[in-house]
Amino acid sequence: MMLINAFTVLLALYTQTQAHSWVEELTLIAPNGTFVGTPGYARGNYMRTTLGFSDPTMTYLIPPNTRANVTQILPIDKMCKDTQQDQTQSEGSPRLEANAGAAIALRYQENGHVTLPQNQPGKPTNRGSVFVYGTTQPKTGEKFLDVHGAWTQDGTGGDGRGVLLAVQNYDDGRCYQINSGEISETRQAKYTHTADPRMGADLWCQQDIQLPLNAPSGKPYTLYWVWDWPTAAGIDPTYPNGKAEIYTTCMDVDMVNTVGKQAIKSNYETDQDLNNAAIPSQFDALGSPISAQLSSQPTSQPTTFVTSLATVFLLYLAIPCPQDRGTNGWNNGLDFANPTSSGNSTIQTLQPRWLFLVEIAFL
User: Fold this and answer.
1) What is the pLDDT of residues 343-355, one digit of tens each?
2) 175 to each of 186, 269, 277, how far by Cα in Å?
3) Where are any strands of DSSP class E within 69-161?
4) How far apart are CA 22 and CA 117, in angstroms?
5) What is the pLDDT of residues 191-228, one digit of tens each?
6) What is the pTM of this model?
7) Which residues contact 329 (CB under 8 A, 6 or more apart)?
8) Which of 48, 66, 160, 307 counts the highest number of beta carbons within 10 A?
9) Cβ neighbours of residue 289 under 8 Å, at least 6 residues apart?
């Protein structure tokens, strides 16, 4: 009986970390840091309470598991899951409505990726980095590499159709899934909350962002959420060369002239209900340059600052030889490997005729 019980516990822990993450809901944040209004949902959302729900109905992985080379991201890879290619909503899962400049929270479940880190060797200590891009000009069939690592905060990067709105840790420093892991038990004691119908006893992670002040009303504003969660080379024997592992969620916000109590941040209200509270450090950094957003990340153990940009952007800041340039200027077979840092730059030769040079320039 004891052996069966031990096996059951191990199986439960294993199962918890096989689930992956997507944006479960979008919520407005009031000037005091409290969630307000009616939540919104991603394109083609499939509620967990819907009959037939399973992780694959919402999970979108780049590169796909069917690709022989798990380190390779191709120019043909799309930003959005097939069910999220168009700006359509599922019944019962409306879009969020918001004003230009509104603060919103993108909420997701950590599924053990934060609280059971030992189950995924070689992963970054911050559990990866989450990026949010925004545009008023989305494309059906949007290509991943046309956006990620290309669009910039000032809107001049890539094809200029969109902007980088935020970069933060996947681990927001508070969130947890209920399990017997040390991180979970520590956070359960520190960040207590009343179980609610959506989260249950878990406390969801969140990424707090500010919509652009110039987002036009009367039309949807598209958000691309990207979770970059690479496996480093030389740690997991299954992936001796490392592994690219990226998940995305595509969603739209209906921009309106006014929606109740929402505005740019003022004073964060401390000691509020954690079921409906923004992350203080993220809230304080709303509207700041990306470098300020990074410096606002929680530093409590066991998490650290956002993964080195040498790791995060290694896939995308490639300098190709002319004969290797694809139709969009990228390698037709971009390959991932774990970088080795030296000072402020990283140089790694991955394939013939390719040199990767990443310069960290956040000052």
Assistant:
1) 333 222 233 333 3
2) 11, 19, 12
3) 72-73, 96-98, 103-108, 129-135
4) 18
5) 999 999 989 999 999 999 999 999 999 999 999 999 99
6) 0.79
7) 320
8) 307
9) 153
